[in-house]
Structure formats: structure tokens, C-alpha cells
Specification:
alpha/beta; about 250 residues; 6-stranded mixed sheet; Rossmann fold
Length: about 250
């Protein structure tokens, strides 16, 4: 469903993303972890066609992002780390605008109502977005990303500014979407979230995918006890750590 093939993005001599190979299956929640500056957001921006890769290829649902951007984006929902919202629109007006961009005509009003209720924004639907708290804006952007019922959802740091109740709602949402066949690509700093909801995790460090697999794979690779993803992450990304052995990465 998501495939990155030899994906690289260079800025001069600096490789923000370096020969990254990755596959995520339909209905899978894949966690994408890495220290600050590791290349997570750059990878996602290339995946979404915001940045052009220096080399390599991204396919979403079988569509090449560079060659068939409209088809790729039509099946993908995206929540960036710093979402832009037209703050002079009300919540419902913003969602109608996004629905128009995705050509959602039939059932749009009902879909908006369902999403606003799910994210507990119904009573704020006619208020200008500029009056929303950060967490409310984040939930509104999630509504927008789900309007067209995407087959792939790409989320960059969804838990920033979200209270514990909102975080629980999001985790339940990701699990429900995956159960229904939606592929979720989740970039996060929250080790606990990755440990709780992700079937597999990839760790990127200095632009390279240094490990990818199930939690058990990562624990074994880092030689730490099960249930200690934070320890595995710190061990695998520390300077001077031994490179992964054969079979620890899944191209």
C-alpha cells in the first residue's frame, strides 16, 4: 500500500533522507520514529509530494506520487506536524471547503456531522477557527483528513497539544481505521503511542532507516527486555552503536 524505493532527499551535500526502502501493508499501523532532525518530516513531505525527491520513488496505493499525484492524493489523508487552517472560516465551513477539494459531494453534510461528533467539535462547528484551542484545531484537521474516507492516512506528530482524553480517542481511531483496512503511517515522538498501537516500527537516524520490524524484532536487535521500546530506541540511535545485522531492515 505504501512503498518507498531507494528514496533520497539531499540539501547540497547533506542527505536528509538517504536511500530509504520501506513497505507498509494494507491495514497496518506503522510507526516511524527517530530523534529530532533524523529525517522523519522530510520523508513524509516527499511522500506527500510537497518536496521532490533527489532520487528514488514513492508509491501510495500503487500510484507513483510524482507521475500520478492526483490519484495518489485522492486515496490519502494527511495530517502535517504544523497544519494550516483558514482561521476566518468556521469549523463547518472549513470542512465543506476541504470536501470540495476532494470532490466529496454526496453525503458531505452527513459526513461532516459524523466527524464533528466523533471529535467532540459539534458545538463549535459555527465558531471561527481562530477561536479554537490548539487541540481543537488538531482535531479539526483530523476531521478534514478523513472526510474522503482515505485508504491511507499519513500523520506527523498527532499527539502534540492533545490532552489525555484526546490522545485516547486518536489511538482508538487509528486502531479502528486499521481494522477497516486503512493503512496508517504514524510519525511520532511518543514511544508509548507507538508501542501501544503499531504493528511494526521503523527507526530513522541521520537520514537512514537503521531498523524496521515488529516490537519483538527491535527488542532482540537492541538486546533489551520486551516492553522497553524506549530503551531499544535509545540503544539503536546512540552514537557509536553497532550497525544493524542482516535481516533487521525490511526494504
Amino acid at each position: 500500500m505504501i512503498r518507498l524505493e531507494n528514496l533520497s532527499k539531499h540539501y547540497g551535500r547533506v542527505a536528509a533522507v538517504d536511500s530509504l526502502n520501506l513497505e507498509v501493508e494494507p491495514g497496518e499501523i506503522f510507526g516511524f520514529l527517530g530523534p529530532n532532525g533524523a529525517g522523519k518530516t522530510t520523508t513524509i513531505r516527499v511522500m506527500m509530494g510537497i518536496l521532490r525527491p533527489t532520487s528514488g520513488r514513492v508509491t501510495l496505493g500503487g500510484y507513483d506520487v510524482e507521475r500520478e499525484p492526483e490519484k495518489a492524493k485522492a486515496i490519502t489523508g494527511f495530517v502535517p506536524d504544523r497544519p494550516f487552517i483558514y482561521e476566518k472560516l468556521s469549523g463547518s465551513e472549513f470542512l465543506k471547503f476541504i470536501g470540495g477539494l476532494h470532490h466529496v459531494d454526496e453525503g458531505l453534510e452527513l459526513r461532516i456531522q459524523e466527524l464533528l461528533e466523533h471529535f467532540e467539535l459539534s458545538e463549535w462547528k459555527d465558531e471561527l477557527v481562530e477561536s479554537y484551542s490548539h487541540g481543537m484545531k488538531q482535531r479539526l484537521v483530523l476531521c478534514a483528513s478523513l472526510l474522503h474516507r482515505p485508504r491511507i492516512l499519513v500523520v506527523d506528530e498527532p499527539m502534540v497539544g492533545i490532552d489525555p482524553k484526546g490522545a485516547r480517542t486518536l489511538k482508538d481511531l487509528f486502531l479502528s481505521l486499521a481494522k477497516g483496512g486503512t493503512t496508517v503511517f504514524l510519525s511520532t515522538h511518543s514511544i508509548g503511542v507507538a508501542e501501544e498501537v503499531c504493528q511494526r516500527v521503523g527507526i530513522i537516524h541521520k537520514g537512514k532507516l537503521i531498523a524496521s520490524g515488529t516490537m519483538a524484532d527491535l527488542y532482540r536487535l537492541a538486546k533489551v527486555e520486551e516492553g522497553r521500546l524506549e530503551s531499544a530506541f535509545l540503544e539503536l540511535t546512540r552514537d557509536g552503536a553497532s550497525p544493524p545485522g542482516p535481516g533487521t531492515e525490511r526494504p
